[in-house]
Design brief:
With 58 residues, the protein is α+β, with helices and mostly antiparallel strands. The chain is built from 1 helix and 2 strands, in the order αββ. It starts with 10 loop residues before the first helix and ends with a strand.
């Protein structure tokens, strides 16, 4: 087993990760219904200093 740290967007890797998860969810939860969710940390000046984005199942 190996672990890679990738410092650029890799569409093939993202597709591999999400397609398996989506298939599992459809099999166990039915048709997928999602909406975007973004959590952002800002400094006192309102500048973005961190965060995470993804989708949540409804």
């Amino acid at each position: 087993m190996g672990i890679d740290i990738i410092h650029h967007e890799d569409e093939h890797v993202i597709h591999s990760l999400t397609s398996g998860l989506r298939q599992f969810n459809v099999e166990h939860l039915g048709n997928e219904s999602t909406q975007p969710l973004t959590i952002v940390a800002r400094n006192d000046d309102g500048d973005v200093i961190g965060g995470v984005g993804g989708r949540i199942h409804l």
